[in-house]
Amino acid sequence: MTIGALSRQSTLFYVALGLQASLIKDDLLEPIDALLDDEELLELVRGQLATRSPSSAKKGRRTIAPDRLLRCCALKHIKEWSFRDLERELRGSLVYRKFTRFHEDSTPDHSVFSKLFKLLGPEAVR
Fold first, then answer.
1. What is the DSSP string of 81-117?
2. For the chain, what are the domain ranges?
3. Over the stretch 96-108, which tens digit does the pLDDT of each residue have?
4. Are 99 and 33 contacting, i.e. CB atoms less than 8 angstroms apart?
5. Are 36 and 74 in contact (CB under 8 A)?
6. Rounded Cα gap, residues 27 and 9, in angstroms
């Protein structure tokens, strides 16, 4: 499993929606957004993802980028959703796509979230 990387460039999806897409905000998620950009926190998640197998960081299938996984974990916890709820809400909400940085990318299946959240451990998920 290769740890996914995330490029932060403007997407055609948001360009097409123009100004309206940039105005999408959530009063609950906005303050949390900055907290989740903490490099130490992201490094912890990256480290946990690398424990899946000895060569996880360099070989295998690409997985969710650490910052996306961390944001999905926070969103699931805040909203008290199941993994299926998280999958469904990410697919249908521009606000949640923006917060988790999936934007126009496809979102993972609920089973992927379940497996990766287990890697983070129960304490990290809480």
1. --HHHHHHHHHH-HHHHHHHT-TTSPPPPHHHHHHHH
2. 12-125
3. 998 999 988 899 9
4. yes
5. yes
6. 24
- As a whole number of angstroms, the distance between CA 1 and CA 116 comes to 11
Q: What is the pTM of this model?
A: 0.77
- Write out pLDDT tens, residues 42-99: 999 988 888 876 665 566 667 789 999 999 999 999 999 999 999 999 998 888 998 9
First to last CA, the chain: 24
Q: Which helix (H) or strand (E) holds 46?
A: helix 39-50
Distance CA 48, CA 51 (A): 5
**Paired tokens of 89:** 């809400």
